[in-house]
Amino acid sequence: MATLLQVKGLKTQFFTQDGIVSAVNGISYELNEGETLGIVGESGCGKSVSVLSLMRLIPSPPGRIVGGEGWFQGRDLLKMDNEEIRSVRGNKIAMIFQDPMTSLNPVLTINQQVSEALELHLGMDKKQSRKRSIELLELVQIPDAADRMDDYPHQFSGGMRQRVMIAMGLSCNPQLLIADEPTTALDVTIQAQIIELVKQLKDEIGMAVIWITHDMGVIAGLADRVNVMYAGYIIESADVKDLYADPRHPYTLGLLGSLPRLDAGPKEKLTPIEGLPPDLIDMDPGCPFAPRCKYAFDRCLEEMPPLETVARRHIAACWVDVTGGKR
Asked: Which of 60, 284, 292, 293, CA to CA, is 20 to 30 A from 234?
């Protein structure tokens, strides 16, 4: 498969009154055409900021992309001018945000919002864009789509609003769909429907997907590869089956250990990750997970480990081999 997106050394900071927040710290990865990449980690680890940086949607001030490259179809997204990046956003790269109620404009009809990208990027007139918008709502399985076009977002349920967001994202047949925790605000049955819908549409359209979440259970049935992030770093990356079968970073072990299991006994408890996430202002030089890590030794507090190959298509940033001691 050809490489669709190549991120090299992406670094984003926020300049605040309290100091410089190091939100994304030089991450690098690749995404192939038609592949689904999961980005996981706890809140505040840099998942959303990393993709918002690629889309050039970081609020400035206080945010600033201070380094790196983001190559998409032979062009660096981070070097494009405003007009060029607008031609990519919503057209070749689409994004679904976490809360559909705040992402949809409450005073515009569904037709106006779905049609906008069709008219802007594909040059359709009002009649053409309305017809295509109805087809898109039917594609995402909204009942009576033609009769709902002139409704407003508040007239839809949370799950239906998220389907509208997916329809908007798919309107221009993007090569890449970025889904930023799109099921967080939904109940579990609607979550399952949305995830299954995205998988089905991905196969039909052939697009690549970046799915951002803190839910390791969702990623297990959705992604081809997984990047695990902590404190703005990618600390482990592997094919999804390898990551779950053979995790090599203590933080990944902790995430998987905190998952409820169907095969667990009635008295078996979940294993929490002790401690708190690090302060991203004036970070210490060592591994940011070291204060919470049961495997940590002196070097972990002094030096950040590089990402190294630990198995085929499997990299981890840790001075400890969790399968057998120090490296």
From this structure: 60
The two tokens of residue 38 are 């999961």
How high is the pLDDT of residue 327? 58
| Packed helices 158-170 and 188-205: angle between N→C axes, nearest 10 degrees | 10
Could you tell me how far CA 175 lies from the centroid of its own chain?
A: 16
pLDDT tens-digit map of 104-123: 889 999 999 999 888 988 88
User: Which amino acid, residue 316?
Assistant: A
Look at residue 326 in the predicted model and tell me its pLDDT.
56
The residue with tokens 């991203």 is 280
> Number of C-alpha atoms within 13 angstroms, CB side, residue 265?
2
For 168, the token pair is 């908007």
* CA–CA gap between residue 210 and residue 230 (Å, rounded): 17
- In this prediction, residue 187 has a pLDDT band, given cuts at 50, 70 and 90, of confident
pLDDT at 265 over 80: no
Nearest-5° Cα angle at 195, 114 to 221: 150
Interatomic CA distance for residues 306 and 317, integer angstroms: 5
Share of the chain above pLDDT 90, in %: 54
Q: What is the pLDDT of residues 33-53, one digit of tens each?
A: 999 999 999 888 999 999 999
Q: What is the mean pLDDT of the chain?
A: 89
Measured CA to CA, the distance from residue 296 to residue 319 in angstroms comes to 8
